[in-house]
Amino acid sequence: MKGCAGNDAWCQKLFYDKYLGFALKIAFRYVHSYENAALAANDAFIKMFKGFKNFEIRDPEHIEAMLMAWIRRIVITTSIDYMRRESLVPEHVVISESVWSKPDNQKTGENNLMYKELMSLIKKLSPAYRVVFNLHVIDGYTHQEIAKILGISVGTSKSNLAKAKAFLQKFLVRDKNGNVLCFT
Question: CATH number for the domain including 83?
Answer without folding.
Answer: 1.10.1740
